[in-house]
Design brief:
By secondary structure, the protein is an all-alpha fold. It is globular and about 70 Å long. The protein has one domain.
Length: 413
């Protein structure tokens, strides 16, 4: 059996020579697709068609949801604390990094926010106060992704058990002692809630309702930072898996301190560019909006990019490693059980590297194009059609840069 959890994912398709078309052509065409989308919107999209209505959601769980959430919580904690399994056979890394991290968000495209219905961090305490900010969720999210991307053993069942238990204590501690709501502090709940905004099963007109659903993102303080962290963390992971990264920094890439600084640095750099784009839009438009106001208002425009990054980055993990579910469930907590009599499993790689690459590139481009559409509509609403293109120059630059970076990671070993 080939295991993907216990090793670093290979996000490219092997080598540049494996590409169906030259890599330079991929970059050039992709950049022009984004730019021409921008130009087309300037010519044809002269009035905003989207309304912004802050929509909060209920995370109340049924008794069955709480029961399922408790089972998930138990299976995340117990294998590492009771059993002695390797990541290749344990159910805990499967539940965290495949089921919760990528499987449920993809299902959210069809069914909306499923995670809230069984959230294992919300099975004991709930708080229905009106949320205000997501800064705590940002901090816990960056900690969780540091564990996934920088820590050397993110698939170790014992480490997963400890980390998830600490996350459970932190989330419920903030609820109990600081009266925070789940959406303000729970990074997994907020992550799934944001991705559910891209639900593609809508009433007609489907595309407009999709845009409308994304634009109705709750304006909680710090929301833009959470979305940017969603992009920045995956950007770091993609880059550090390339030969280019190793050639630049050598054996330092294996150093925990260096990796931590690089991880933080890339996220801060992305946030700085985004804030500068907001500042530029204010100055060019001569508007009276504050920087924080514009920064938060444009938060939803980056969400499609975050989702595209997330899906393309973990797609191979979802498609192939998910086939090991019953093999891992055969001994759910690592006590030597053999529930189904399964001794081994074969992972079927039913997609060729080129087919997988084509899907990843397509999703990447669609996410960035959707981001350009959302940003244009909002800029028309805030700054007027005449100034809308000028205010978006830096945003366009960031979008093109993120597109090329994502394609570089997908296409170059």
């Amino acid at each position: 059996m080939r295991n993907l959890i216990s090793t670093k994912l290979n996000h490219g398709i092997g080598s540049v020579g494996d590409l169906p078309i030259p890599f330079e052509t991929v970059l050039n065409v992709s950049a022009w697709v984004i730019i021409l989308t921008f130009v087309f919107l300037k010519i044809s999209w002269k009035e905003s068609i989207l309304t912004s209505e802050e929509r909060f959601f209920s995370n109340n769980q049924s008794i069955y949801g709480k029961l399922f959430g408790f089972i998930i919580f138990f299976l995340l904690i117990a294998p590492g604390l009771i059993g002695n399994e390797e990541p290749t056979t344990s159910l805990a890394p499967f539940i965290l990094w495949i089921f919760l991290w990528i499987g449920v968000p993809v299902l959210g495209l069809l069914f909306g926010d499923l995670y809230a219905k069984f959230n294992p961090l919300n099975i004991f305490l709930s708080n229905d106060n009106k949320p205000n900010s997501v800064y705590v969720a940002c901090g816990l999210f960056i900690s969780l992704t540091w564990f996934e991307l920088v820590w050397r053993k993110p698939g170790n069942p014992f480490h997963i058990g400890i980390v998830f238990f600490l996350l459970f204590v932190a989330v419920n501690g903030f609820k109990l002692f600081l009266n925070k709501t789940s959406i303000e502090i729970d990074p997994l709940l907020l992550l799934h809630h944001l991705y559910s905004k891209l639900k593609i099963v809508n009433s007609r007109p489907v595309f407009k309702n999709l845009l409308q659903n994304i634009s109705n993102l709750s304006k909680l303080k710090g929301m833009e930072y959470f979305i940017l962290l969603m992009i920045g963390t995956v950007t770091y992971d993609g880059l550090r898996g390339t030969v280019f990264w190793y050639n630049q920094f050598g054996t330092r890439v294996y150093d925990l301190i260096f990796s931590t600084l690089a991880f933080i640095g890339i996220n801060l750099l992305l946030i700085a560019f985004y804030r500068f784009a907001c500042y530029f839009a204010i100055k060019v438009s001569n508007s009276d909006y504050s920087l924080n106001e514009v920064s938060l208002t444009f938060a939803h425009t980056m969400l499609p990019i975050a989702f595209a990054y997330h899906v393309t980055h973990y797609l191979s993990l979802l498609l192939f490693e998910s086939q090991t579910f019953f093999y891992r469930l055969n001994d759910p907590i690592g006590t030597g059980a053999n529930l189904f009599g399964i001794d081994d499993v074969t992972v079927v790689y039913f997609l060729s590297p080129v087919a997988l690459w084509t899907i990843q590139v397509t999703i990447t481009l669609l996410g960035h194009m959707l981001s350009v559409v959302l940003a244009h509509d909002l800029s028309v609403k805030l700054f007027g059609h005449e100034k809308s293109d000028k205010t978006q120059y830096i945003f366009l630059f960031i979008t093109v840069a993120l597109t090329l970076q994502a394609l570089f990671v997908l296409s170059v070993p």
